Amino acid sequence: MMGKMDAQTFAGLIARTGDKAYNFAYRLAGNEPDARDLVQEAFAKALEHAASYDSTRPFDSWLLRILNNVFLDSMRRHSHTRTVSLDAPAPVEDSSWGELLPSGDLSASDELLKAESLDLLQKALSRLPVTYRSAIALCDIEGLSYEDIALVMEIPVGTVRSRIHQGRVLLRKAYEELEMTGGRTS
Amino acid sequence: MKHHIDGPMMTAFLDGALSPSDRDRCDGHLVSCAACRRELDALRHLKLVVSTAPRKTMPADLVLALERRLVSPMPRWRIPAPRLWIPLGATAAAALSIGLWLQGLRASEEIPLEPLLTAHARYSAEGLIPQENLVASTYSDQLTSLDAESSDVELQ
After folding, report:
1. What is the spatial distance between Cα A100 and Cα A103, in angstroms, rounded to a whole number?
2. Which terminus of chain A has fewer CB atoms gathered within 10 Å of its CB, N or C?
3. B63 at interface of A, judged by CB pairs closer than 8 A
4. Residues 6 or more apart whose Cβ sits within 8 Å of residue B136
5. At how many degrees (to 10) do helices B113-125 and B138-155 cross?
6. pLDDT-based confidence at residue A3 (cuts at 50, 70, 90)
7. Is the CB of residue A22 less than 8 Å from the CB of residue A35?
8. B15: which chain A residues are within 8 Å (Cβ-Cβ)?
9. Which pLDDT tens digit goes with each residue over B101-121?
10. What is the spatial distance between Cα B12 and Cα B18, in angstroms, rounded to a whole number?
C-alpha cells in the first residue's frame, strides 16, 4: 500500500528534483508521454520505499536510480518498442575511438556541432542500448560524477567509464546513420 | 606512454575522472601524439553537443497529477474557513427554527384539541371507555368535570 505525503513535503520534493527527474526521463524515453509515465512511477516508488532511503547519500541520485530501474523494467516489459533492446550487441571492451572515427575526420564532429535539429540527437540517443543511454544521459546531460553514476546504475566505477566510452562511440555512429537517412529511423 | 590512449581512458580523461598520475601520463602522451589529440577533440565536440541540449522542465499538469497521486488530502479539522462555515451554520439554524415553527402551526391547525376532548367525554359518559383505563390526572379530572357539567345541563 503506497503511503502519501503532506503538501509541503511534496512541494519541496518537486522543487528540488522535479525538473532533473523529468529531463533524465525524457532523455531515456525519447518522448514526452513515456517520460511522464516514468516520472510518475518513479516518484510513487520512491514514496513507497522511502524507508529504504539512506539519508547519508544524495537524494537526487537515489531518485534517479529508481527512475533508471523503472525505465529498465519498462523496456523489458515492452520489447516491441522502437528503441534498441537490452540484448543489443555491444562493442568490444577495448574498441578504440580511432577505429570508429577515421583519423583526420573532424568534419562530422563539426557538422554535429552545427546541427540545427536537436531532434536528430535525441533520436540517436534513443537508438542506444539502454545501459549506454543511461550512462551518457547521467554523465553528459545530468553532469553526474562517475561515482554518482556508479550509485545510480549500481555498477563499479570502472564499468561506468567503459559504458560512457562505448555509449559515445555508439551515439556517434547512430547520429551519422541518421544523418545519412535524413533522420528516418530504420 | 608509448601506445595510444585507449578509449575508456580517453573518456575518463575528458571527464576529469582520472587519477593525477594517469592524467599526467595522458597529458604527456597527448603532447606528442596528433592522433590521440584528434580523438580527444572529437570526443569533446560530442560531449559538448549532448551537454548543451536544452533541458526539459516538468510540465505543470504533470506536477498536478503527481500531487493528486502522492499528496494526502488535508484533514477536516484543518480546514481554515470560518468566514464560510459560520454564516452557513447560522443560515441552517435559522431555516431549522422557521421549519419547526411552521410545523408547530400546522400541527395545531390540523389536530384541534377540543373535538377530541368532547368525543372522549361522550365515550366516557356512555361507558365505552373502561374506568380502569382512565388515568387519574388533571386531564381525567377535566373530563370528569366536563361530564358533570353535561349532566347538569341535561338535568336543567
Report:
1. 9
2. N
3. yes
4. none
5. 70
6. low
7. yes
8. 139, 146, 164
9. 777 666 555 556 666 677 767
10. 6
Question: pLDDT tens for residues A44-57?
Answer: 998 888 888 888 88
Smallest Cβ–Cβ distance between B63 and the set A14, A26, A44 belongs to: A14
Q: Does B66 touch chain A (CB under 8 A)?
A: yes
* Closest residue of chain A to B10, computed from CA coordinates: A165
- What ipTM, to 2 d.p.? 0.73
Give the integer Cα–Cα distance in Å for B2 and A63.
43
Residue A17 contacts residue A53 (beta carbons within 8 Å): no
Q: pLDDT tens for residues B35-94?
A: 999 999 999 999 998 998 888 999 999 998 888 888 877 655 555 556 666 777 778 888
Residue B26 is placed in which grid cell? 595522458
Backbone angles phi, psi at B71, to 5 degrees: -95, 130
Q: Which letter does DSSP use for residue B71 in this model?
A: B
Reported pTM = 0.63
Closest CA to A135 of A119, A146, A127: A146
Residue A5 three-state SS: strand
Residues 6+ apart with CB under 8 A from A174: A123, A124, A125, A127, A128
**Any B CB within 8 A of A31 CB:** no
Distance from CA of B84 to the nearest CA of A (A): 23
Report the half-sphere exposure of A113 (CA within 13 A, side-chain side): 12
